[in-house]
Amino acid sequence: xxxxxxxxxxxxxxxxxRVHLHDTATGGLVPVGPEAGTATLYVCGITPYDATHLGHxxxxxxxxxxxxxxxxxxxxxxxxxxxxxxxxPLLERAAATGVDWRDLAESQVELFRxxxxxxxxxxxxxxxxxxxxxxxVAEAVRDLLAAGAAYRVPGTxxxxxxxxxxxxxxxxxxxxxxxxxxxxxxxxxxxxxxDPQRPGKRNPLDPLLWRVERPGEPAWEAGELGRGRxxxxxxxxxxxxxxxxxxxDVQAGGSDLVFxxxxxxxxxxxxxxxxxxxxxxxxxxxxxxxxxxEKMSKSKGNLVLVSKLVAAGVPAAVVRLAIVAHHWRTxxxxxxxxxxxxxxRHERWSxxxxxxxxxxxxxxxxxxxxxxxxxxxxPGAVAAVDAWVEQARTTAGTxxxxxxxxxxxxxxxxxxxxx
Length: 419
Ligand code: 5CA
Ligand code: ZN
Hints:
This protein folds into two domains: 20-291, Rossmann fold, CATH 3.40.50.620; 304-414, Four Helix Bundle (Hemerythrin (Met), subunit A) (Up-down Bundle). It is built from 13 helices and 14 strands. The chain has helices at 54-72, 88-97, 101-118, 130-146, 182-191, 232-244, 258-272, 306-311, 316-324, 336-354, 362-373, 378-394, 402-414, and strands at residues 20-23, 28-31, 38-43, 76-83, 126-129, 151-153, 163-165, 208-212, 228-230, 248-254, 280-286, 289-291, 294-295, 332-333.
């Protein structure tokens, strides 16, 4: 599917250092991406059943910082993102509101594109809906069946036989992405789209791979699987393996995807391509944005929308600045104060880069690079820019190139556009 337009990324002198990132699986900082060549990134995309909100924006901006740091370090970036355009919550919302599920998905993806463009997020090279990838997913499920790493479950509650499940015990590395104990995994599975109570499964944690057609639900022909639709986790694995290969450098998403989504996705990949293990060299998880003390989520409806802020006259660069002022891995809360601070900072920065001269800025560029290469420490980079801006305000800088270098640094590395 169409992604969105590429923002202008100004050129900078020199190169950034190798990027290190916190890896969920090992719990430590690891170098990510090769020393030279192409880095690969898969970020889990939206389920387009309701307007995209600041929480989503936070996640895609976080990994946009990664892509920018990689490119600045001289790497090419291959970036793939999916759209979960067939899934239970989307179908339920469509049925409840009397809208065709395809129209609902398309309208929400279009809103998302607008948000991403406004926020200067560099688009993925491949932006794929599950609807476009059904054959790919079905092939992966058939491969798992052929490898003995999938099984069929009899129907319950009058439902049809033949839903296909994945036996988590088939992967020796299962559980190592999130490192959770069994009790926590069971609770998270029930909370996040799993069905631990379903009778007939070998292990309550086993996730759905293929759901046989039910009346009124969309379904596709899939050979020996019969008509049906993909399960959630296998969708991302199949798309990542096809378009990025294995191992990928970074598998990313919000922290609510650690378990079950990324744990299951990795386990599927390990069985599909045993010799290419691991699925990802690093697993990166961004923090959750909250509103009024609760995680912002479509199901709760406590949303702040980028599109609404922009329509109300807030420059998108201010929203981006509010986001990058928080460390990508921390949970934080959107408040009027956060917005006001970003607004004031954007004004201070804009005034400083509009001056005819300022203090020399080569050291600032080096610090911003160094901060971002150290686990995407954007708040550290923001503090360094603040310090330069303060110096520009209080001393008569004479470097006529400096304001433009700061403008380009902030735009290229933080993605914050200054007028
Ligand atoms: N389609 C699946 C992934 S394959 C999905 O989780 N979709 S989503 O629309 O629910 O979320 C899209 C992305 O935004 C995910 O990476 C998710 O972790 C992240 N996300 C959702 N809510 C928040 C939030 N409140 N704060 C930060 N990130 C969030
Ligand atoms: Zn995903």
